[in-house]
Design a protein that fits this description.
By secondary structure, the protein is of the alpha+beta class. The chain contains two helices and seven strands; from the N terminus they run ββββαβββα.
Length: about 130
């Protein structure tokens, strides 16, 4: 599939474990959700699974729903956020892209500085 000339698609995953905690990743001094851009020939699900696997090492998760769709500040990228769940415990293996990770509860949100305020709002809706 050719890259669309008008926009790109970036996907994020709100990954919730069996305890209801949400996985966040640290990049630089800010926290974010796992995710990234679709590559040329990928379906949305292939791209989401690849990004989550590359950034966290998580292989098995279910996609429960589309949590949010928005457009980047530049207006050139659609950002689709999916609510996902994992069963059991899975070891987190971070890529070189991230320095740390945390499983957080709702009351923990104020302790973290996110790369965008929208992330905090999305996480709050799913805890």
């Amino acid at each position: 599939m050719e890259k669309h000339k008008l926009f790109e698609v970036n996907q994020n995953a709100i990954i919730q474990n069996v305890d209801g905690d949400i996985l966040i990743l640290k990049k630089g001094n800010k926290w974010m959700l796992p995710g990234g851009r679709l590559e040329n020939s990928e379906t949305w699900l292939e791209g989401l699974r690849r990004e989550v696997r590359e950034e966290t090492g998580i292989q098995n998760f279910s996609v429960e729903e589309i949590a949010n769709v928005t457009v980047s500040e530049s207006g050139k990228t659609y950002i689709v956020t999916f609510a996902c769940k994992i069963e059991g415990s899975q070891e987190i293996k971070l890529s070189d892209e991230h320095q740390d990770y945390a499983w957080i509860k709702g009351e923990d949100l104020s302790q973290y500085e996110f790369s965008h305020d929208k992330i905090k709002d999305l996480v709050r809706q799913h805890i």
